[in-house]
User: Fold this.
Amino acid sequence: QTVVTQEPSLTVSPGGTVTLTCASSSGAVTSAYFPNWFQQKPGQAPRALIYGTSIRHSWTPARFSGSLLGGKAALTLSGVQPEDEAEYYCLLYYGGAPVFGGGTKLTVL
Amino acid sequence: QITLKESGPTLVKPTQTLTLTCTFSGFSLSTSGVGVGWIRQPPGKALEWLALIYWDDDKRYSPSLKSRLTITKDTSKNQVVLTMTNMDPLDTATYYCARRMGPVPTRFDFWGQGTLVTVSS
Assistant:
């Protein structure tokens, strides 16, 4: 069973920049895994942010960007806002079977 | 406007079978590349993908739960149904359905609000 690993928690100051990563137990993450990123706030359903590694949905603010970094998928938040405090999940596709990461709790402090 | 909404029992007993329905609007499950998936989230834990059904009736299941899951669609009613057999307290979770768009790059874009299912005797 493939495991997708994210940082359990990160803290960032308002206005700062932070990068969340998403690693695969099967090796380097490539664009063929079609990395997706989701934001989830307490009591809410997940909201899609990024797909296809770096493509923003129409509703995703420009301060969110996706990339591949050092064999991992990455989500970078630039100019972090207080409302960005949330849990962030990545999703990788393995031959048609999606696997979620364990999530990163982002604190804006 | 695309919406999805999950419905089903809020409480099931251990060993019972859970049946959840996802009713959606704003898109068609007969359109090429479209799918609907089920994802769950135990309280305080991470998201877990369960099952996917595609426009062409292709179906995919989580390997760890495959023996307990069945996903079907009714295109005329805009509904997708998930059944999970032999429910256990560890299956207590919020269950979400989401639209899957593809083929490339594949993504889940719109999600339902989720429905909390508690497994307890």
